Amino acid sequence: MKIKLSKENFNEGLKKLSKDYKILAPVSLGYKGTYSDTDVVRYQEVNSIEEMEFNKKSDFSPKEVIFPITQILFYFTEKEFKESDIDDKKVIMFLRACDINAIKRLDQIYLSNGLDEDYYYKKLREKVKFVLVGCKKSFRNCFCVSMESNKTDNYSMGLNINDDEIQLEIKDEDLNVFKGENDNFEVEFVKENLFNIELPDTQKLNLKELANDEMWNEYNGRCIACGRCNFVCPTCSCYTMQDVYYKENENVGERRRVWAGCHVDGFTSMAGGHEFRSTKGERMRFKTMHKVYDFKKRFGYNMCVGCGRCDDACPQYISFSKCIEKVSEIVNKEEK
User: Coil, helix or strand for 21?
Assistant: First the structure.
């Protein structure tokens, strides 16, 4: 069903849905940005469309809703353990196409990568329904068109925002609580970014030569291993485990899953002091090839969705899209 309605009527519908769902959308949080007097846009619970921020790209991805930064898996004592409780209320998330496609990548890793599904991820993932937000124009550093992640049909509702009018496509009957007039439209998507990138031909990659190429040495001097690119990325899925013991009784505590990243010092450290990737260049190589080669070789599509958040967040102005293009240049040079 496709309808058009006013923002007032849309908010009335949200009010009805809020009885059964938490409604999450990007929100601009004043004076909480990286620098003084700057805002940060991240996902928060909202009650109206006026609270939602769609004129800016969210600084953090929505993955933290289904893959929390810190997640308590269970509590333990000397003799038993208890699984942590979660809020049973279902969730509606307002996302752009690139972020919905990013969650497809997380689903691939946590639900279809091996014999068993990730139980803790699945518990949160099953609660979520997507609202696709139409994207009229590209933001700075976005290259979703090049990554073929600018479109999706995986959503329960889709909407375009036109001044004071909402165009709403309702695909899930459970969300059919909105009143409006019938309309004929398509949810908007970005057709062209501010720039395009050339992806490397994975069939022509010489992995040994690429691994030893001097291009990676550039990042030894530029990258500071802060991990921001990992933590804002909607498809990075790495984590570490922590057991936290309580002071009152050292045999009682909780086990947590905590985000980790391949750029951060200590990520590949092993007992005995060995580390697989000790230099920043080696870590950049690993991340790059994972995003545009390893994942694709296994599952048939690229891991990176071209949201550009890594470029936005890097304090050293390292461009991941440029890094991908450098790999393509090496492949093209080898071919000649």
Answer: strand
Locate 24 and state its tokens: 């999450």
Q: Exposure pattern of 147-159 as b/e (b: 16+ CB <10 Å)?
A: bebbbbeebbbbb
Token output for 11: 């908010």
| Helix locations, 187-308, DSSP H | 207-211, 218-222, 228-232, 280-289, 295-299
pTM of the model: 0.94
Kindly list the distances between the CA atom of residue 125 and the CA atoms of 62, 68, 318, in Å, as whole numbers in the listed order.
Answer: 12, 11, 32
The predicted structure's pLDDT at residue 169: 96
Digit-coded pLDDT (tens) for 260-274: 999 999 888 888 888
On the 0-12 / 13-18 / 19+ scale of CB atoms within 10 A, 170 is: buried
Q: Please give the structure tokens belonging to residue 147.
A: 């990554």
Instruction: Tell whether the model's pLDDT for residue 74 goes beyond 90.
Output: yes
Identify residue 137 by its one-letter amino acid code: K
Quote the pLDDT of residue 275. Answer: 86
- E strand or H helix at 9: helix 7-17
DSSP symbol at 85: P
Q: What is the pLDDT of residue 336?
A: 55
Closest CA to 14 of 43, 40, 47: 47
